[in-house]
């Protein structure tokens, strides 16, 4: 060993410096998103990943996330999902429509605004509180899954107390970027997964794409995977709409080539229809 190693080990501990083979030998389980997305992600989403997904209203963002929750529970039966329902829009039909999702308190914890009860008024958490709770989970619960639905709906303490008629800069993205900068190593080291869902907004700059995520570049810097629901259309069989066809684009990924697009099928009261997705992949190849 080098003299530098001895000095660093003495002050910071022997684990501060180690061979890069540590990264290759470290076991990480991979969780499936859907057959087509798994192909362009080189297998799926490995533990220790940070994801961003975005899309317009009713494009399947929540359904995609909840279907992933069910697969996460299957692969990691001793781990828990922490679902930050920031918009307070998660409905019974959303949960019942996902095949295999375990919503028991041991497997699925929902963090959301608290309704009024008796003399206690309703409580709406601000961005600082949501991020503090997420940090506590990451520090104390290895191999967990945290989903923010949606990060776009977070309202900071200043925004919550400022007159809305005046102009105030949205600080939620800045706080989330700082949170990721501070806690991304915890996600990686503890084999956890952090997923933030974002809205698509009009790009008024006149440059680049017509739509963009409202999270800003600082948030996107920390993403291992960035998915965008580009478009959706009715999925009809025999003249009846049974779901949605959603075109997903992998904007960037540390796992595969960027800007690849696939078609995903969302069946009502079911979630992501993986079987239909396999058929759509196999048919052009003549396998079906």
Tags for this model:
288 residues, alpha/beta, 10-stranded mixed beta sheet, two-stranded antiparallel ribbon
Structure explained in plain terms:
There is one protein chain. This protein has 288 residues and is an alpha/beta fold. Helices cover 32% and strands 25% of the residues. The chain contains ten helices and twelve strands. The chain has helices at residues 3-12, 21-25, 35-40, 61-75, 92-96, 127-140, 157-161, 172-189, 216-220, 274-282, and strands at residues 30-31, 45-46, 50-55, 81-84, 108-111, 145-148, 193-202, 211-213, 225-237, 240-253, 260-267, 271-272. Strands 3, 4, 5, 6, 7, 8, 9, 10, 11 and 12 form a ten-stranded mixed sheet that branches. Strands 1-2 form a two-stranded antiparallel sheet. A hairpin with an 8-residue loop joins strand 7 (193-202) and strand 8. Helix 6 (127-140) runs parallel beside helix 8.
Q: Helix and strand layout, with pairings?
A:
Layout: H1 3-12, H2 21-25, E1 30-31, H3 35-40, E2 45-46, E3 50-55, H4 61-75, E4 81-84, H5 92-96, E5 108-111, H6 127-140, E6 145-148, H7 157-161, H8 172-189, E7 193-202, E8 211-213, H9 216-220, E9 225-237, E10 240-253, E11 260-267, E12 271-272, H10 274-282
Parallel strand pairs: 3-7, 3-9, 4-5, 4-6, 6-7
Antiparallel strand pairs: 1-2, 7-8, 9-10, 10-11, 11-12
